[in-house]
Amino acid sequence: MKLNKFIYFLTPPIAYRVFTKLKNRLLTHGVKSSSDQVLGDADLLKNFKREKFNLFFKEEVIGEFCDLMHQNFNENPPIPTQNKSNQIYLDELVENGFCKIEGLFSREQVKVWHDAIYPSLSAEIPMFHKLASEHGIASGKDINLIKDNKKHCYDLRSGIIRKWAMDVGNLSIQGLKNNKNINDICNSYLSGKAGESGVYADFKGIPLCKDANLLLHADSMFKQIKVFVLLNDVGLDQAPFIYYKKSHRLREWRLLKDFLAFTNYNRKYNSAYAQWGDIEMGRFAEAYPELAELESVVTGKAGDVIIADTRGVHGGSILKSGYRLQLGMSFSMLGDFHSGYLPKRILDLSRNV
Questions:
Q1: Interhelix angle 60-73/255-263, nearest 10 degrees
Q2: How far apart are CA 57 and CA 85, in angstroms?
Q3: Count of C-beta atoms within a 10 Å radius of residue 186
Q4: pLDDT tens for residues 146-155?
Q5: CB distance 315 to 247 below 8 Å
Q6: CA–CA dist 272, 140 (Å, integer)
Q7: Residue 33 dihedral angles phi and psi, to the nearest 5°
Q8: Is 239 part of any domain?
């Protein structure tokens, strides 16, 4: 070690590199090599140096990304709500990335939904434990089963059980889907071009599960609205929603992560480029308060509605006691603005995916 330092400081860089190559060649002479022993891939680095980011995706994908982002944000801004009383919620959604409408639904109406949904979903907890035992919670799998002609999703890591198509065959829940206030706000935010959404039930009833949603993330690089209707009171112990205000805006600080998520290259290695840490976001919010605020913990009462642009940085929290039951909807803008359904012509621009 001392000899290496002595040679390093007393020789020119090129001479030191020649010396290092000769020494390593002598030391490794006769040593059997295998793919497991090789720690570096010289050809990979040469290719990256030569092709730069074209090694991962074709250069045209940058153009596609910029064009769609321009259309989504600049050509399709929010429009005024039809009902003037909803404008205050739209303004809050535009400014902060989420809003909460307190008591939009009566306790009596919410009790009808709650009592119709809670028994069947809480009865699925033994099935969740069975699947977790078979597949392992650490697998992070979402297991989908069809029961009663509805898809049930068991999120093994988070302990969340979801039941889809709740509005199908249920006139009461169809009323939620057609709620004028919710649709007015969501449609106005998406420039009057919101697509259709079904209604799903989201049940979190297994305390202290390690929730994958605890990892701060963004659902999409495009504007995307999610609506959560609370069917029971959600306090600090019932896994409230976490959101960083103003993080939904199109700004330089998150543009690279948006682009990497857009390319879908992350799916090859199950990586998540569009994730953030709470320490990272905390420091960022303190340094740039005009770009993001410290985390908001969104609690609420049964009948409250949370509307959020989940392009913004958000996450879940641990269920410490009780349970959390809510109905959910999701809206994207019409066109190629759903991150999960990008056209093949765009996906083909990412290499090796």
A1: 120
A2: 47
A3: 22
A4: 988 899 999 8
A5: no
A6: 14
A7: -105, 150
A8: yes
Counted domains in the chain: 1
Between the alpha carbon of residue 157 and those of residues 126, 131, 140, 213, the distances in Å are: 15, 11, 5, 9
Give the separation between CA 301 and CA 234, rounded to whole angstroms. Answer: 6
Which of the listed ranges 58-67, 82-91, 126-135, 255-264 does the model predict with the highest average pLDDT? 82-91
Q: Determine, yes or no, domain membership for 200.
A: yes
Residue type, 67: D
Q: Residue 143 and residue 46: Cα distance in Å, rounded?
A: 41
> 72 in a domain, yes or no?
yes
Give the three-class secondary structure for 98: strand
Closest by CA position to 336, among listed 222, 256, 258: 222
Range of the domain at 82: 60-107+178-347
And the tokens for 163?
Answer: 């039941």
Mention every residue, 6+ apart, whose C-beta is less than 8 A from residue 142. Answer: 153, 154, 155, 156
Is 336 domain-assigned?
yes
Q: What is the CATH number of the domain that holds 300?
A: 2.60.120
User: For 242-272, what is each residue's pLDDT tens digit?
Assistant: 999 999 999 999 999 999 999 988 877 877 7
What does pTM read for this prediction? 0.88
